[in-house]
Design a protein that fits this description.
By secondary structure, the chain is mainly alpha-helical. 39% of the residues lie in helices and 2% in strands. A two-stranded antiparallel ribbon has the order 1-2. β1 and β2 form a beta hairpin. α3 crosses α8 and α7 crosses α8. The termini are far apart. It binds heme C.
Length: 199
């Protein structure tokens, strides 16, 4: 019995003392002397495959997606407003006019988001500018994960829409708050200058 106990203990000792490396310990076995081996090329961590190109790249093949590929909810818009005010408004201004504080202090003025050219861009275009930058503008991929970038796209769309709302699309109570608020087909008269004056 005692002998058997010894034998078992000895066996366990062997396993405790099996050859092994401490983290980042030097190795004489590998040519580069690194015991911690580099990842095999193309290794993807579980959950990080990101194979949904519409969502992660904003593209369908080589084409920019026309619509935001995630549900546009009130939460998304609120998040988008928050991120826009933090990361975009310093240059693009709180309303997307392109007259943010840094611009007023001398940085190159970006175009207004309310021009015909930018209004006509697909949703994926805005995502792409944030992902890859554009001309003098750096990219915001490090500051804004994909979901946040789409949130900002949604909010930029809301800013653009705010200049073009048809009075007939407003609720009764909202219509009453507007000057000359009869339902009509003309764009709502914006309180801060008409849309045409900004283009
Ligand atoms: C530091 C200033 C700055 C910040 C911050 C900034 N931009 Fe820009 N952005 C610019 C400038 C400058 C241009 C014009 C670049 C050029 O034409 O070379 C521009 C251009 C653009 C354009 C227009 C591209 C076109 O077709 O003309 C879009 C869209 C845009 N920015 C979106 C954003 C969004 C969204 C954010 C926030 C995530 C953001 N920008 C943050 C400075 C900035």
């Amino acid at each position: 019995m005692a002998l058997a106990g010894f034998a078992a203990a000895g066996c366990r000792q062997d396993m405790h003392q099996a050859a092994r490396y401490d983290p980042l310990e030097r190795s004489d076995f590998y040519a580069d002397q690194r015991s911690s081996r580099p990842l095999v090329e193309g290794t993807v961590a579980r959950g990080f495959l990101r194979d949904d190109a519409r969502f992660y790249a904003g593209k369908d093949g080589a084409t920019l997606v026309s619509d935001i590929p995630t549900p546009v909810t009130k939460e998304l818009l609120v998040r988008g407003q928050d991120r826009f005010d933090v990361y975009c408004s310093p240059c693009h201004g709180r309303t997307g006019e392109g007259n943010g504080m840094i611009v007023q202090r001398g940085l190159k003025q970006p175009p207004s988001f309310h021009t015909e050219r930018l209004r006509a861009q697909v949703d994926g275009y805005y995502y792409d500018v944030m992902t890859n930058g554009f001309g003098a503008m750096q990219d915001y991929s490090a500051q804004l994960p994909p979901q946040d970038r789409w949130a900002v796209v949604a909010y930029v769309r809301a800013l653009q829409y705010s200049r073009r709302v048809n009075v007939a699309d407003l609720r009764e109570a909202e219509r009453a708050t507007i000057d000359g608020g009869q339902a009509g087909t003309a764009p709502a008269p914006a309180t801060h200058g008409g849309p045409a004056t900004h283009e």
